[in-house]
Amino acid sequence: MRSVQRHQVELRACDLDSLLPPDHAARAVWSFVQGLDLEPLYARIRAVQGRAGRAAIDPALLVALWLYATLEGVGSARQIERLCVSEEAWRWLCGGVRVNHHTLADFRTRHVAWLDEQLTRSVAALMRAGLVTMQCVAQDGLRVRAHAKAASFRREPSLRALLGQARQQLERLKCELHEDAAASQRRRQAAQARAAQERQQRLAQALAALGQMQAGADAKSAPAAAARDDEEPPSATPPKPSQPRASTTDAQARVMKMADGGFRPAFNAQLAVDVATQVIVGVQLCNHGSDSGLLQPMHQQLQQRYARVAPQWLADGGYAKLADIEALDRQGTQVSVPLPASRNPATHLHAPKRGDSPAIAQWRARMGTPQAVAIYKQRASSVECVNAQLRRRGLLRFNVCGLLKAQAVLLWHALAHNLQRLLSLKATATTAAAVG
């Protein structure tokens, strides 16, 4: 009888390249990375020949790891580090190079400008190849949970009290650090001092964000208050002013209404998608809870990226701001946005209103035609589909703090999505050529 022997040491001749099939997604990611402009990333490496310093990891490897991780729905640097040891596809990408989670996490959020440039270059290449025409663009907002917890939001008195405590703790740790002569104890105290200093900085940022929110609230309430003074008699009991709150963890996060109706700390991720191909052509991250007023900035962004104006623009009813519709009409873009519902049931929704400009009157009349209804239906099959795919790949919550770092994560998702669409478009073109 032959029994199993699992402790017997075996020597097998095997190379990493034979571990993956030729059509594996990791090979497609590596091929895509080889076509990117990596010179700005190489220029930032300080360890060069002839000088002291540890050899740096090739940026191409780090870019490939994060693109493949985004496609696989992996958003943790520690998990990537473990996968690079245990999984064959990740080992193939590494090619014998060991990576740690600190390097991966820093690289992910450090090159926002480069990521934004690569998004422009990749879409422009698709446009030159005739795969993307950008004749019709659909825009939508995606509320993504912030890293901050709801319990981290504090009002101004609490923030000032916490800031005072953080300053006292930092001063006490600095004094202990100078007085203690033990090296190990000094290192621990230095780490505690750094943590206290970072907390103090976060609290100061939260107080600054409170000031900005209060200034914005005062600017918005002044015209409304003036209108009420002209229309209504003064009330005996003035309304209680609302007190804004800011997060001690992420001062730039804001509490927003989510898709399920609840309110949570989040960021507003704006996406512009080419309707014909579902390729992301523009991204923008902000902390505005509403989509109103965000139509024109995205339109200007696409003009700056590609020097082209989309003839058709689709968006949902949250973007129905008359000033934006007029601005896009002057640029030669026809906007398809549903009309806001009227509180008067006798009002004809598509009839021009008093004070409407010619562009607004045409928009109201156009949205009642069957052609406009048919065009607007394409929004659900384009940008809404892209939103669902990003959610499936893990864009549910940012695990970084701040608008800049969250913007980097959003750009990684946009690049990974466009890579997937590029592979699909090329496969479709190849099949059509073979059939033809």
From TrEMBL:
Organism expressing this protein natively: Fischerella thermalis CCMEE 5318
Assigned keywords, A-Z: Coiled coil
Annotated coiled-coil segments of the chain: 163-201
Recorded GO MF terms: DNA binding; transposase activity
Region of interest (Disordered), residue spans: 214-252
Keyword Coiled coil (UniProt): yes
GO biological process, one term: DNA transposition
Bias (Low complexity): 214-226
Domain Transposase InsH N-terminal: 16-110
Protein name: IS5/IS1182 family transposase
Keyword Transmembrane (UniProt): no
